Amino acid sequence: MAGKPRVGCEALRVVARCRPMSRREEAAGYERVLELDVKLGQVSIRNPRAAPGELPKTFTFDAVYDASSKQADLYDETVRPLIDSVLQGFNGTVFAYGQTGTGKTYTMQGAWAEPEKRGIIPSAFEHIFTHISRSQNQQYLVRASYLEIYQEEIRDLLAKDQNKKLELKENPETGVYIKDLSSFVTKNVKEIEHVMNLGSQTRSVGSTNMNEHSSRSHAIFLITIECSETGPDGEEHIRVGKLNLVDLAGSERQNKMGAQGERPKEASKINLSLSALGNVISALVDGRSTHIPYRDSKLTRLLQDSLGGNAKTIMVATLGPASHSYDESLSTLRFANRAKNIKNKPRVNEDPKDTLLREFQEEIVRLKAQLEKRGMLGKKRRRSSRRKKAMDGEGAVDNEGEDENEDGLEKNMENYLKEQKERLEEEKAAIQDDHSLVSEEKQKLLQEKEKMIEDLRKEQEATELLAIKYKAMESKLLIGGRTIVDHTNEQQKMLELRRQEIAEQKRREREMQQEMLLRDEETMELRETYTSLQQEVEIKTKKLKKLYAKLQAVKAEIQDQHDEYIRVRQDLEEAQNEQTRELKLKYLIIENFIPPEEKNKIMNRLYFDGDEDQWKFQPLVPTGGNSSQMKRRPTSAVGYKRPISQYARVAMARRSHPRFR
Ligand code: ADP
Ligand code: MG
């Protein structure tokens, strides 16, 4: 780390949110097992099958949101500071984690139509563009991507070709990224909402059962914000903040057999990313692990920065209040409780290589220079004054003449074209009228003029295109008060500010309460002075009782964990048995039906591509060779052609067995 600026550690912020009882749950008469203490940030969960005397389990988080909480409460208190950081150039991530039907999508997206039910994503859109519109002396570029991970395959929800599976790549400078992921530069809330809706539509179109699909896939909305500003050193600096908004797959334990018609192998992939997420968190928190298994899944690789890395991260654990989801709720609470202990080292991304903003700026300068060379920008003033003079005669008022921005560009160009054309036409007419010229000579001169008019037209067309491109590019760079304007009035602004202050105050109060609670327990002992032996015995007995209850709770927790461990282990063993059985079948086929020399040939050519998690064939001919080269090798070409589909399947089977992974 030598030479790098020191960065502070920051824990993952974890909040819990409990949705209201659904009508179905109420009708079925389920009891409530969750109690939330909003002031203290605590959730208590009571086992509906508890033995008498068993205490509820209590978990403390950075904040908790009960059924009556508003979307804006969660946003202002918890998410707003993170988005502010992203606007300053930090990376940020918000996860929603929880069982299907507990409100992950409600929290992330919410109900679009009703403003007060809008979730984190639409609120972030508003927040980001309002911030930019109020900024000064800064240039912003905002772009968005939308993707989904389903059965360990990455799908670009904004791409034309939905069948294309995207690959993860790693760059030593910028970290893990998705190759060829499409992204759209957006200039305002409406545009980014459009991008979001486009992706959401794509997401639902491809699936026969949307509920099942969304409960098994991870959706990630990615916003990249680049900001350029002149620093105190007089140089221009660019900061880049990346925001991941993640609606995770349902955290419920998957049915071992998977959905109907699904082979076990497919079912085993469903929650691979989610269990890998759990493993990464455990390893990070463990403190003894030197290896963090980020590479085990697409999700954990992609969000490596957010877990123990340089990002600021929030996890919203969503819960159902009713007794029938007790097991899942408890497991969500435990998961969230573990995540609390992850430490990140957030850092501003200053002047990274290859920013789009820089590219845009350079392109704009280039286009501007070209336009100037073509006389478009430079000539403007002269021409508009000329135009004014010409129009004065008709008594027209020309406002555009004063206006020196690019809006007048197209108009100017039109006029310029007209003027030039008129001049040439005049000259043409003059030639025609000139009786001193011989007709041949006249014809030649006229043709020349015609050609000049045609060239002029072409030239103007090209310039027009350039100007359009220039305008389009410049409009994408957002400048507060100029290209993007804030329409909130003073009163609204005041209200907004007030709301933020309250949110901040609430947060501070809760932190203090939590701190006090902790300190209370620590200092009770020190403060106590006993007036009599009797009193000392009483107080110590009380304390003993308290500690005993705590001990029992911890013991119960250990037992629970142990049971869970055994269950998971049994699952794994079952999966392993199934795979071994499948492997045996494939072996039987290979050993009995494939000539050994063919088998050896293939084995020698197979290699494992860790990046793509696939077995692959080494090419027969060195890369860059073409098919004619292959034809020149008759024996291997024939041997290669026939059985390849068979072999490919063999390779697949080998891959699915843990021994080969
Ligand atoms: P998930 O995405 O976790 O599967 P959803 O977000 O689809 O769950 O929520 C399930 C249902 O519960 C939806 O009808 C949603 O409107 C409702 N819901 C979830 N959370 C809340 C909440 N905090 N307040 C009101 N309704 C909620
Ligand atoms: Mg959902």
Automatic annotation (TrEMBL):
PROSITE patterns: KINESIN_MOTOR_1, KINESIN_MOTOR_2
Similarity comment: family membership: Belongs to the TRAFAC class myosin-kinesin ATPase superfamily. Kinesin family.
Alphabetical keyword list: ATP-binding, Coiled coil, Cytoplasm, Cytoskeleton, Microtubule, Motor protein, Nucleotide-binding
GO cellular component: cytoplasm; kinesin complex; microtubule
Stretches that traverse the bilayer: none
Locations listed in the record: Cytoplasm, Cytoskeleton
Annotated stretches, region: Disordered: 375-409
Residue span(s) of domain Kinesin motor: 11-342
InterPro entries: Kinesin-like_fam, Kinesin_motor_CS, Kinesin_motor_dom, Kinesin_motor_dom_sf, P-loop_NTPase
Protein name: Kinesin-like protein
Keyword presence, RNA-binding: no
Annotated ATP binding sites: 98-105
Annotated CDD domains: KISc_KIF3
Domain of life: Eukaryota
Source organism (scientific name): Vireo altiloquus
